[in-house]
């Protein structure tokens, strides 16, 4: 089973994981790792290592982070670089992406990552009542 670390700035990771579990149900082999304002990338790498130890045994691990280039991304990328065949990293975490990741945990990283990118993009929609176009077919 694919292990997942949900992470981001502040309490974002805990909040989005809690929201996903309200919709999806209790997640297995998933943990949230937070970054406090006074913590460094090195602190976060330590938090990730502890989380990985708690998720063990891990054959494949996916980091889902809030922002490309932020501290959670930078810390995760260090670990992914050390384990490129076992670890993956996707930035831009949103709720549809996380729910989909939970549903796909039986698949491999190679299968999951491209699917999550499509799902996350599909989760961005708009309601345009002026022109009656776009994603307003719900009305």
TrEMBL record:
Location of the protein in the cell: Cytoplasm
PROSITE patterns with a match to the protein in the record: PTS_EIIA_TYPE_4
InterPro entries: Bacterial_PTS_sugar_comp (IPR051471), PTS_EIIA_man (IPR013789), PTS_EIIA_man-typ (IPR004701), PTS_EIIA_man-typ_sf (IPR036662), PTS_IIA_man (IPR033887)
UniProt keywords, alphabetically: Cytoplasm, Kinase, Phosphoprotein, Phosphotransferase system, Sugar transport, Transferase, Transport
Protein name from the UniProt record: PTS mannose transporter subunit IIA
Organism from which the protein derives: Levilactobacillus zymae
Pfam families (UniProt xref): EIIA-man
Main location per the UniProt record: cytoplasm
Lineage top rank: taxon: Bacteria
Stretches assigned to the PTS EIIA type-4 domain: 1-124
